Give the backbone structure.
Amino acid sequence: MQPSTSNPPTLRVVHPDVWQPLPARGRLLFRLRHALGFALLATIVLTPLLVLTGTQLAWPLPYPLIAIPVGCALLGAAFGAWLGGRRHSYYRWRLDDTGFAVKSGKLWQSHVHVPATRVQHLDIKRGPLERQRHLATLTVHTAGSFGHAITLPCLDAANAEALRAELARRIEPESDAD
């Protein structure tokens, strides 16, 4: 395979010391992912509870029994969509001289910093919905850490490529010709 003669992608950031937000077009994917997960969870957990409670209290069921799981799924999906939108707004990333950092969360906050010397390899994944919105998921695999990888979902595709190129440039060993 011949080396690419095109210029490497450039990273679009305001300033290296400023935490960068995820693009707004990824909010829908966060909402969708959370809505599906919470709809399934609410259906599995709430349906048996409501049916058991109803039979114990001898509630008359004026509606078909199928309404309970459908209602639970809709309730879970609504909550998941709201939560997904909130979680999207709390994701931030930064690439500075020492390495790559990701922080997320409001109530349970997470802040992970990976020095460039600890980066093993980098992956970019693009699902069909991400490709449609020009987004990508960047995974930074680390050496000798507990989590072994940091994943940054719904990142701008051009920024994901540029981040991968920049981090790869930092981890490649110096050649003897330099």
The beta strands are 20-21, 92-95, 99-104, 110-115, 119-125, 135-142, 149-156. The CA atoms of residues 109 and 141 lie 21 Å apart. Helices lie at 27-56, 67-89, 128-132, 157-171.
